[in-house]
């Protein structure tokens, strides 16, 4: 179950980053995921296949949250501001402008 | 591929505007610009056995103006979480789970399940992983090493005889194999088959899609395999964050949304039978 718990923790931390603070306490998605984990933890001997399936889906959801976040961050960093100024471009590749102090 | 679709969409929209009266126009078009977040809380409501999303006191609607409702509880929760995670602007283009649900609810192109299944089956002819290189020895080894086990798994799982090819023309997939894949797809419901279409368009491979949905490989691996040549070239030419990483994360987000979507759409019936 160790692997499962770490996935659960990661999902919670990802949701925490994107969902507004005041909505976190009674967020239904969080409750649902935790409930699912509890449900399959107690019966994992009988429902082995379902547990595996849930584990896969939890990892998939985690992947969805992480990839969406990274995608948004990269987009914000590089694509959302329009054209860069000459200074910014120079700084990106480690150059200075002619009139800048050395 | 996407640019082609966008131009087709523009064409269809444009031709509609030409032949429509003003009244029709106003109800057909909704504002698609970026909207600021106008709600505080999202919630999931149950009505008539289906789940709906509420944004404060408003109900979420699809682009065509239908009430947004899905049969699966986890799916509704995922959509609600997606809306809740919009910061100050609502960026619809990055809400893949919502997009998938909207498309099957509105079905803007009036596709039938049969059309969609056919589209997926015909994609097999141009599946990424059956085209392997004959120019670069090292890349070929890499491809054979990574892709062949997946093709083998696929042939065994669906009782098909798909062969890889190193020729320009590519292999032909037997009609018998296509039929059997088609039958398999038709056993899913409409929503799931649409999910397959979206996934095939995303990672350009039916075989990888099936392997991922059947849990033979995970999402990260499927995306990695679909961009295997890119990944190989990166080792020679270097990695650029705003192109390669962006592409990889975008594909991963899209594919994982599809896998969740297909899973949720199939799970609902299972849960119902259990409860009885």
TrEMBL record, chain A:
Name it.
Protein FMC1 homolog
State the family named in the UniProt similarity comment for this chain: Belongs to the FMC1 family.
- Identify the GO cellular component terms for this protein: mitochondrion
* Cleavable signal peptide: none
Name the CDD domains on file: Complex1_LYR_FMC1 (cd20271)
UniProtKB/TrEMBL annotation, chain B:
UniProt lists the family membership as follows: Belongs to the ATP12 family.
Q: Where in the cell is it found?
A: Mitochondrion
The UniProt entry, under InterPro entries, shows:
ATP12_ATP_synth-F1-assembly, ATP12_ATP_synth-F1-assembly_N, ATP12_ortho_dom_sf
Main subcellular localisation: mitochondrion
Segments passing through the bilayer: none
Gene3D superfamilies in UniProt = ATP12 ATPase (1.10.3580.10), ATP12-like (3.30.2180.10)
Keywords tagged on the record: Chaperone, Mitochondrion, Transit peptide
Provenance organism: Henosepilachna vigintioctopunctata
Q: Which GO terms describe its cellular component?
A: mitochondrion
Instruction: Name a Pfam family for this protein.
Output: ATP12
Q: What is this protein called?
A: ATP synthase mitochondrial F1 complex assembly factor 2
The biological process GO terms on file are:
mitochondrial proton-transporting ATP synthase complex assembly
């Amino acid at each position: 179950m160790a692997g499962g718990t770490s996935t659960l923790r990661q999902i919670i931390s990802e949701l925490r980053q994107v969902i507004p603070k005041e909505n976190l306490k009674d967020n239904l998605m969080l409750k649902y995921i935790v409930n699912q984990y509890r449900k399959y933890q107690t019966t994992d001997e009988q429902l082995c296949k379902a547990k595996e399936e849930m584990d896969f889906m939890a990892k998939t959801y985690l992947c969805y949250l992480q990839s969406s976040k990274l995608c948004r961050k990269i987009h914000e960093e590089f694509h959302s501001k329009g054209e860069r100024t000459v200074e910014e471009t120079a700084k990106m590749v480690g150059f200075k402008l002619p009139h800048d102090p050395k | 591929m996407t640019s082609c679709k966008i131009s087709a969409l523009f064409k269809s929209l444009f031709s509609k505007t030409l032949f429509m009266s003003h009244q029709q126009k106003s109800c057909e078009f909704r504002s698609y610009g970026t909207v600021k977040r106008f709600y505080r809380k999202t919630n999931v409501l149950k009505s008539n056995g289906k789940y709906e999303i509420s944004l404060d006191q408003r109900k979420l609607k699809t682009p065509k103006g239908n009430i947004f409702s899905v049969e699966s509880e986890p799916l509704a929760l995922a959509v609600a979480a997606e809306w809740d995670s919009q910061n100050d602007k609502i960026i619809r283009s990055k809400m893949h789970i919502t997009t998938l649900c909207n498309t099957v609810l509105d079905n803007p192109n009036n596709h039938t399940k049969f059309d969609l299944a056919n589209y997926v089956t015909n994609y097999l002819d141009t599946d990424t992983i059956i085209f392997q290189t004959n120019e670069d020895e090292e890349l070929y080894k890499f491809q054979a090493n990574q892709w062949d086990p997946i093709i083998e798994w696929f042939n065994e799982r669906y009782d098909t005889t798909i062969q890889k090819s190193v020729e320009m023309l590519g292999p032909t997939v037997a009609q018998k194999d296509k039929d059997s894949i088609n039958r398999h797809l038709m056993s899913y419901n409409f929503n799931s088959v649409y999910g397959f279409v979206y996934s095939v368009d995303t990672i350009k491979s039916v075989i990888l899609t099936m392997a991922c949905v059947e849990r033979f490989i995970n999402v990260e691996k499927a995306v990695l395999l679909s961009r295997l040549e890119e990944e190989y070239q990166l080792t020679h030419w270097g990695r650029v964050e705003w192109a390669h990483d962006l592409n990889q994360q975008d594909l991963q987000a899209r594919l994982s949304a599809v896998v969740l979507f297909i899973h949720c759409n199939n799970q609902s019936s299972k849960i119902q039978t259990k409860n009885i």
